[in-house]
Amino acid sequence: MLRLIKADLYRLFQSKSFYLIVVAIVGMAGVVLSVHFFPAIGPNEATYNWVVEIKDKAWNAKIAFQGALATYPFLIYLFIVFFIMSSGYEFSQKCYKNTLTSGVSRTTFCLAKNSVQLLMVTLGTAIYFGSIFILSYFNYDMTNINIGALINDMFVAGFCLALGVSFIFSIANIILIITTSNVIATVFIVLCPLFIPIIRLNVGWDWMKYFDFVSLAQSMAFYELSGKALVPYIVANSVLIICSTIISITVIKRKEF
Protein backbone atom coordinates (compact mmCIF):
# COMPACT_ATOMS: atom_id res chain seq x y z
CA MET A 1 0.00 0.00 0.00
CA LEU A 2 2.86 2.37 0.81
CA ARG A 3 4.23 1.86 -2.69
CA LEU A 4 0.92 2.95 -4.23
CA ILE A 5 0.66 5.94 -1.90
CA LYS A 6 4.21 7.02 -2.75
CA ALA A 7 3.50 6.63 -6.49
CA ASP A 8 0.35 8.76 -6.28
CA LEU A 9 2.05 11.42 -4.17
CA TYR A 10 5.02 11.50 -6.55
CA ARG A 11 2.68 12.00 -9.51
CA LEU A 12 0.85 14.77 -7.66
CA PHE A 13 3.99 16.61 -6.58
CA GLN A 14 5.49 16.37 -10.07
CA SER A 15 2.38 17.88 -11.65
CA LYS A 16 2.09 21.58 -12.45
CA SER A 17 -1.60 21.35 -11.53
CA PHE A 18 -0.70 20.68 -7.90
CA TYR A 19 1.33 23.87 -7.63
CA LEU A 20 -1.35 25.88 -9.41
CA ILE A 21 -3.83 24.68 -6.79
CA VAL A 22 -1.42 25.67 -4.01
CA VAL A 23 -1.12 29.15 -5.54
CA ALA A 24 -4.93 29.34 -5.78
CA ILE A 25 -5.31 28.33 -2.12
CA VAL A 26 -2.83 30.97 -0.96
CA GLY A 27 -4.51 33.50 -3.27
CA MET A 28 -7.89 32.71 -1.75
CA ALA A 29 -6.46 33.37 1.71
CA GLY A 30 -5.17 36.70 0.44
CA VAL A 31 -8.59 37.62 -0.96
CA VAL A 32 -10.31 36.82 2.35
CA LEU A 33 -7.99 39.19 4.20
CA SER A 34 -7.78 41.94 1.60
CA VAL A 35 -11.52 42.38 0.95
CA HIS A 36 -12.79 41.00 4.29
CA PHE A 37 -14.69 38.29 2.42
CA PHE A 38 -17.10 36.66 4.86
CA PRO A 39 -19.86 34.68 3.11
CA ALA A 40 -22.88 33.11 4.77
CA ILE A 41 -24.76 30.11 3.41
CA GLY A 42 -28.48 30.80 3.57
CA PRO A 43 -28.25 33.50 6.25
CA ASN A 44 -31.25 34.71 8.19
CA GLU A 45 -31.59 38.39 9.09
CA ALA A 46 -29.63 38.04 12.33
CA THR A 47 -26.77 36.29 10.57
CA TYR A 48 -26.80 38.85 7.76
CA ASN A 49 -26.56 41.71 10.25
CA TRP A 50 -23.71 39.91 12.00
CA VAL A 51 -21.85 39.55 8.69
CA VAL A 52 -22.30 43.24 7.88
CA GLU A 53 -21.09 44.19 11.35
CA ILE A 54 -17.99 42.00 11.26
CA LYS A 55 -17.03 43.15 7.75
CA ASP A 56 -16.98 46.75 8.99
CA LYS A 57 -14.97 45.97 12.13
CA ALA A 58 -11.22 46.31 12.39
CA TRP A 59 -10.02 42.80 11.63
CA ASN A 60 -7.52 40.88 13.69
CA ALA A 61 -6.13 37.34 13.44
CA LYS A 62 -9.13 35.84 15.24
CA ILE A 63 -11.69 37.43 12.91
CA ALA A 64 -9.51 36.45 9.94
CA PHE A 65 -9.66 32.84 11.16
CA GLN A 66 -13.46 33.08 11.34
CA GLY A 67 -13.43 34.41 7.78
CA ALA A 68 -11.25 31.48 6.73
CA LEU A 69 -13.74 29.06 8.26
CA ALA A 70 -16.68 30.73 6.53
CA THR A 71 -14.95 30.50 3.14
CA TYR A 72 -13.54 26.99 3.62
CA PRO A 73 -16.40 25.21 1.77
CA PHE A 74 -15.25 26.86 -1.46
CA LEU A 75 -11.96 24.96 -1.21
CA ILE A 76 -13.60 21.66 -2.14
CA TYR A 77 -13.82 22.92 -5.72
CA LEU A 78 -10.04 23.28 -5.74
CA PHE A 79 -9.54 19.96 -3.97
CA ILE A 80 -11.42 18.22 -6.80
CA VAL A 81 -8.10 18.32 -8.66
CA PHE A 82 -6.60 16.10 -5.95
CA PHE A 83 -9.43 13.61 -6.44
CA ILE A 84 -9.04 13.56 -10.21
CA MET A 85 -5.27 13.16 -10.06
CA SER A 86 -5.37 10.36 -7.48
CA SER A 87 -8.43 8.25 -8.36
CA GLY A 88 -10.02 9.82 -11.42
CA TYR A 89 -6.77 9.76 -13.41
CA GLU A 90 -6.43 5.98 -13.27
CA PHE A 91 -10.05 5.38 -14.23
CA SER A 92 -10.09 7.93 -17.05
CA GLN A 93 -6.87 6.48 -18.50
CA LYS A 94 -8.02 2.90 -17.78
CA CYS A 95 -4.64 2.21 -16.18
CA TYR A 96 -6.23 0.98 -12.94
CA LYS A 97 -6.48 -2.43 -14.63
CA ASN A 98 -2.70 -2.57 -14.91
CA THR A 99 -2.40 -1.76 -11.21
CA LEU A 100 -4.89 -4.45 -10.21
CA THR A 101 -3.27 -7.11 -12.43
CA SER A 102 0.27 -6.35 -11.25
CA GLY A 103 -0.17 -8.13 -7.93
CA VAL A 104 -1.84 -5.28 -6.02
CA SER A 105 -4.95 -6.43 -4.18
CA ARG A 106 -8.19 -4.53 -4.59
CA THR A 107 -8.29 -3.91 -0.86
CA THR A 108 -4.86 -2.28 -1.00
CA PHE A 109 -5.92 -0.24 -4.03
CA CYS A 110 -8.94 1.26 -2.22
CA LEU A 111 -7.06 1.89 1.01
CA ALA A 112 -4.26 3.65 -0.87
CA LYS A 113 -6.62 5.91 -2.83
CA ASN A 114 -8.58 7.01 0.22
CA SER A 115 -5.35 7.56 2.18
CA VAL A 116 -3.84 9.74 -0.55
CA GLN A 117 -6.99 11.84 -0.79
CA LEU A 118 -7.11 12.34 2.99
CA LEU A 119 -3.43 13.35 3.00
CA MET A 120 -3.86 15.81 0.12
CA VAL A 121 -7.03 17.40 1.52
CA THR A 122 -5.32 17.74 4.91
CA LEU A 123 -2.28 19.30 3.24
CA GLY A 124 -4.45 21.74 1.27
CA THR A 125 -6.33 22.67 4.44
CA ALA A 126 -3.06 23.22 6.31
CA ILE A 127 -1.78 25.47 3.52
CA TYR A 128 -4.99 27.52 3.64
CA PHE A 129 -5.11 28.07 7.39
CA GLY A 130 -1.33 28.46 7.51
CA SER A 131 -1.54 31.21 4.89
CA ILE A 132 -4.30 32.93 6.85
CA PHE A 133 -2.17 32.83 10.00
CA ILE A 134 1.03 34.08 8.34
CA LEU A 135 -0.71 36.89 6.46
CA SER A 136 -2.62 37.88 9.60
CA TYR A 137 0.59 37.90 11.62
CA PHE A 138 2.12 40.51 9.34
CA ASN A 139 -1.05 42.53 8.72
CA TYR A 140 -2.80 42.71 12.08
CA ASP A 141 -1.96 43.51 15.66
CA MET A 142 -1.35 40.24 17.55
CA THR A 143 -0.92 41.88 20.96
CA ASN A 144 -4.19 40.67 22.49
CA ILE A 145 -4.27 37.36 20.62
CA ASN A 146 -3.38 34.07 22.32
CA ILE A 147 -1.29 32.69 19.47
CA GLY A 148 -1.00 29.20 20.97
CA ALA A 149 -4.78 28.88 21.40
CA LEU A 150 -5.38 30.24 17.90
CA ILE A 151 -3.00 27.71 16.32
CA ASN A 152 -4.64 24.91 18.31
CA ASP A 153 -8.11 26.00 17.14
CA MET A 154 -6.87 26.13 13.54
CA PHE A 155 -5.39 22.63 13.84
CA VAL A 156 -8.53 21.02 15.31
CA ALA A 157 -10.93 22.87 12.99
CA GLY A 158 -8.80 22.14 9.93
CA PHE A 159 -8.55 18.43 10.72
CA CYS A 160 -12.30 18.19 11.36
CA LEU A 161 -13.18 19.94 8.08
CA ALA A 162 -10.60 17.91 6.13
CA LEU A 163 -12.30 14.74 7.35
CA GLY A 164 -15.65 16.11 6.13
CA VAL A 165 -14.29 16.72 2.64
CA SER A 166 -12.51 13.35 2.62
CA PHE A 167 -15.79 11.61 3.42
CA ILE A 168 -17.38 13.15 0.33
CA PHE A 169 -14.37 12.02 -1.71
CA SER A 170 -14.68 8.49 -0.31
CA ILE A 171 -18.31 8.34 -1.48
CA ALA A 172 -17.20 9.69 -4.87
CA ASN A 173 -14.71 6.80 -5.02
CA ILE A 174 -17.59 4.34 -4.68
CA ILE A 175 -19.43 6.10 -7.51
CA LEU A 176 -16.24 6.06 -9.59
CA ILE A 177 -15.78 2.32 -9.08
CA ILE A 178 -19.41 1.55 -9.94
CA THR A 179 -19.70 3.81 -12.99
CA THR A 180 -16.01 4.11 -14.02
CA SER A 181 -17.03 7.66 -14.96
CA ASN A 182 -14.78 10.46 -13.81
CA VAL A 183 -17.45 12.97 -14.84
CA ILE A 184 -20.23 11.47 -12.72
CA ALA A 185 -17.99 11.25 -9.64
CA THR A 186 -16.82 14.84 -10.11
CA VAL A 187 -20.39 16.13 -10.56
CA PHE A 188 -21.30 14.37 -7.30
CA ILE A 189 -18.49 16.21 -5.49
CA VAL A 190 -19.66 19.52 -6.94
CA LEU A 191 -23.32 19.05 -6.02
CA CYS A 192 -22.99 17.26 -2.67
CA PRO A 193 -21.99 20.32 -0.58
CA LEU A 194 -24.92 22.23 -2.08
CA PHE A 195 -27.65 19.65 -1.56
CA ILE A 196 -26.76 18.22 1.86
CA PRO A 197 -27.54 21.50 3.74
CA ILE A 198 -30.73 21.95 1.70
CA ILE A 199 -31.95 18.41 2.45
CA ARG A 200 -31.03 18.71 6.10
CA LEU A 201 -32.86 22.02 6.57
CA ASN A 202 -35.98 21.02 4.65
CA VAL A 203 -36.37 17.46 5.89
CA GLY A 204 -35.23 18.16 9.43
CA TRP A 205 -32.73 15.28 9.67
CA ASP A 206 -30.47 16.58 12.43
CA TRP A 207 -28.15 13.56 12.18
CA MET A 208 -27.00 14.83 8.76
CA LYS A 209 -25.07 17.60 10.50
CA TYR A 210 -22.23 15.16 11.13
CA PHE A 211 -21.31 15.01 7.45
CA ASP A 212 -22.53 18.46 6.45
CA PHE A 213 -19.13 20.12 6.45
CA VAL A 214 -20.55 23.31 4.88
CA SER A 215 -22.87 23.99 7.82
CA LEU A 216 -20.13 22.87 10.21
CA ALA A 217 -17.73 25.46 8.79
CA GLN A 218 -20.41 28.12 9.12
CA SER A 219 -21.14 27.09 12.72
CA MET A 220 -17.45 27.35 13.55
CA ALA A 221 -17.27 30.79 11.96
CA PHE A 222 -20.47 32.34 13.32
CA TYR A 223 -20.92 30.59 16.65
CA GLU A 224 -17.27 29.72 17.37
CA LEU A 225 -17.99 26.00 17.63
CA SER A 226 -14.67 24.52 18.70
CA GLY A 227 -12.80 22.29 21.13
CA LYS A 228 -14.65 19.34 22.63
CA ALA A 229 -17.78 20.24 20.66
CA LEU A 230 -15.97 19.07 17.50
CA VAL A 231 -15.09 15.61 18.85
CA PRO A 232 -18.42 14.01 17.76
CA TYR A 233 -17.90 15.39 14.24
CA ILE A 234 -14.36 14.02 14.09
CA VAL A 235 -15.47 10.60 15.33
CA ALA A 236 -18.52 10.49 13.03
CA ASN A 237 -16.57 11.44 9.90
CA SER A 238 -13.77 8.99 10.76
CA VAL A 239 -16.30 6.17 11.12
CA LEU A 240 -18.07 7.21 7.90
CA ILE A 241 -14.77 7.22 5.97
CA ILE A 242 -13.96 3.73 7.28
CA CYS A 243 -17.44 2.48 6.33
CA SER A 244 -17.28 3.98 2.84
CA THR A 245 -13.82 2.46 2.35
CA ILE A 246 -15.19 -0.96 3.30
CA ILE A 247 -18.03 -0.44 0.80
CA SER A 248 -15.50 0.53 -1.89
CA ILE A 249 -13.52 -2.64 -1.22
CA THR A 250 -16.68 -4.77 -1.34
CA VAL A 251 -17.85 -3.19 -4.61
CA ILE A 252 -14.49 -3.42 -6.38
CA LYS A 253 -14.07 -7.07 -5.35
CA ARG A 254 -17.40 -7.94 -6.97
CA LYS A 255 -16.83 -5.87 -10.08
CA GLU A 256 -15.49 -7.36 -13.28
CA PHE A 257 -13.08 -5.14 -15.19
TrEMBL record:
It comes from the Bacteria. The chain crosses the membrane at residues 20-43, 63-84, 116-135, 155-176, 183-203, 230-252. Keywords: Membrane, Transmembrane, Transmembrane helix. This is ABC transporter permease. It comes from Enterococcus silesiacus. The lineage of its organism: Bacteria, Bacillati, Bacillota, Bacilli, Lactobacillales.
